[in-house]
């Protein structure tokens, strides 16, 4: 049976009711490791994008949803191991310590998860934003063959990028908008987006927005496991 490609023009397109919400272990073992080993993926659902070539709000996909990308790490200096994380308008800065990702069966380390925050401007005077990236990489043992040879594609990573939502004490309060966030202010709770999947052939995954029916939710809120402090630069 031929696999359906859910990525079109670098954008993830899923039918209504479907969500891509993998665990850390699934991202590393089922997607990243298979990508590095050139094995078939469970689904063509993660596009290949150089996340450092664009600002987070310009990356493909819905900026109000979690987005996943296969990307490669570009070395900042020819003889060093530091990654180049500068974009057109700012840079990604690592925060906290890397988290070990364990196998649910063997409890061995299969990968690492690094948390980064996007800053506008140039270091060290950049302005912190609410854009968050979780960068997943394989554990070093996963990229080394029994003969001690390092795999050629070890620089592949999976990036999970999202805009951290702030909790408002008053639902009617207008959330502040950061410069460059490219996201409209949210008044109260955000309205769900519905799609008319019958408007086109079912094999066409370009979905058409329609008016939401009353009393229905239709979309699942995404919760972030990131607990970084709020942005220190709101207005400019």
TrEMBL record:
Keywords: DNA-binding, Nucleus, Transcription, Transcription regulation
Gene3D superfamilies reported in the protein's UniProt record: NAC domain
Taxonomy, superkingdom: Eukaryota
Gene Ontology BP, a term: regulation of DNA-templated transcription
PROSITE patterns: NAC (PS51005)
UniProt xrefs under InterPro entries: NAC-dom, NAC_dom_sf
Classification via SUPFAM superfamilies: NAC domain
GO molecular function terms noted in the UniProt entry: DNA binding
Region Disordered: start-end pairs: 206-236
Domain NAC: 14-164
PANTHER family given in the database record: NAC DOMAIN-CONTAINING PROTEIN, PROTEIN CUP-SHAPED COTYLEDON 2-RELATED
Name of the protein described by the UniProt record: NAC domain-containing 83-like
């Amino acid at each position: 049976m031929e696999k359906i490609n859910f990525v079109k023009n670098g954008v993830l397109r899923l039918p209504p009711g479907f969500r891509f919400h993998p665990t850390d272990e699934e991202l590393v073992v089922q997607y990243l490791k298979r990508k590095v080993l050139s094995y078939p993926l469970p689904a063509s659902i993660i596009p290949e994008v150089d996340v450092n070539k664009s600002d987070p709000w310009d990356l493909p996909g819905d900026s109000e949803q979690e987005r996943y990308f296969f990307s490669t790490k570009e070395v900042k200096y020819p003889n060093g191991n530091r990654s180049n994380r500068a974009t057109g308008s700012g840079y990604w800065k690592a925060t906290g310590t890397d988290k070990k990702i364990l196998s649910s069966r063997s409890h061995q380390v299969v990968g690492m998860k690094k948390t980064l925050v996007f800053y506008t401007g140039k270091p060290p005077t950049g302005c912190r934003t609410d854009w968050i990236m979780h960068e997943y990489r394989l554990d070093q043992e996963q990229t080394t063959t029994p003969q001690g040879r390092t795999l050629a594609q070890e620089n592949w990573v999976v990036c999970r990028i999202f805009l951290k939502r702030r909790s408002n004490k008053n639902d009617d309060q207008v959330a502040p908008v950061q410069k460059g966030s490219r996201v409209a202010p949210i008044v109260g709770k955000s309205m769900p987006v519905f799609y008319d999947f019958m408007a086109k052939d079912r094999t066409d995954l370009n979905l058409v927005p329609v008016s939401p029916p009353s009393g229905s939710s239709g979309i699942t809120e995404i919760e972030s496991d990131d607990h970084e402090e709020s942005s220190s630069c709101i207005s400019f």
